[in-house]
Q: What sequence folds into this?
């Protein structure tokens, strides 16, 4: 069992080395090993790609890395994905880096849309010299999205976000992603409305999601934040249509 931290949140797992007991809670302050970036884009044309890890802490750490297909609770040894990641386990010295190499095995994946996987990194600090057998240590897990992008897809990821279609369905707002790309929404709100924005979610290719947005009505302009390929948050505006116009 692993704890999870999906950028930008971090979670801490305590494990008693003598008996391996687990407990979970959240924290936002920990300077250790990090994955450089908040997402990975794997273009099918590439033979392999690299992802950089950096140990920002003051002690060496052991890092275990793996890729999953959406089940964050699955043990790494039971996961079957069409990628090879090397090295799966490595020691990273303080203020140093480590490159992970990811290679696509060629196993069939949809060619008309992106597929999403998750890159995981479990960080276990080195045991202090002279520490007793019952020392309690903290292990941190990072988990970020990895998008496999087939060659020849129509359009771009940026165009996918701009082309989202928003419409009213009763009191709810329907958002439609007709593209072949994933769009990761951060927040959605009516432009100029000071009420709390709606938290976004990832829109998969060809999906339609229902959202509750304060003050929404046909004809109003909404502003939504989304994350581009480089991890930057972009703000885009769109007009809400009535359902009959779609």
A:
């Amino acid at each position: 069992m692993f704890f999870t931290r999906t950028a930008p949140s971090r979670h801490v797992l305590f494990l008693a080395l003598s008996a391996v007991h687990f407990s979970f809670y959240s924290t936002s302050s920990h300077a250790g090993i990090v994955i450089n970036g908040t997402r990975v884009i794997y273009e099918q044309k590439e033979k392999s790609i690299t992802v950089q890890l950096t140990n920002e802490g003051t002690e060496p750490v052991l890092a275990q890395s793996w890729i999953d297909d959406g089940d964050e609770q699955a043990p790494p040894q039971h996961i079957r994905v069409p990628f090879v990641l090397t090295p799966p386990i490595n020691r990273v010295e303080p203020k140093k880096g480590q490159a992970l190499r990811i290679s696509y095995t060629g196993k069939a994946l949809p060619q008309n849309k992106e597929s999403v996987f998750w890159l995981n990194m479990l960080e276990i600090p080195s045991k202090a010299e002279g520490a007793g057998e019952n020392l309690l240590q903290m292990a941190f897990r990072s988990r970020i999205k990895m998008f496999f992008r087939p060659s020849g897809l129509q359009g771009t990821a940026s165009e996918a976000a701009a082309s989202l279609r928003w419409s009213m369905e009763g009191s709810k707002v329907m958002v439609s992603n007709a593209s072949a790309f994933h769009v990761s929404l951060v927040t959605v709100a009516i432009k100029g409305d000071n009420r709390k924005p709606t938290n976004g979610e990832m829109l998969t290719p060809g999906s339609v999601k229902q959202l509750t947005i304060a003050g929404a009505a046909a004809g109003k302009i909404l502003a939504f934040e989304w994350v581009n390929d480089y991890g930057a948050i972009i703000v885009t505006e769109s007009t809400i249509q009535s359902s009959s116009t779609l």
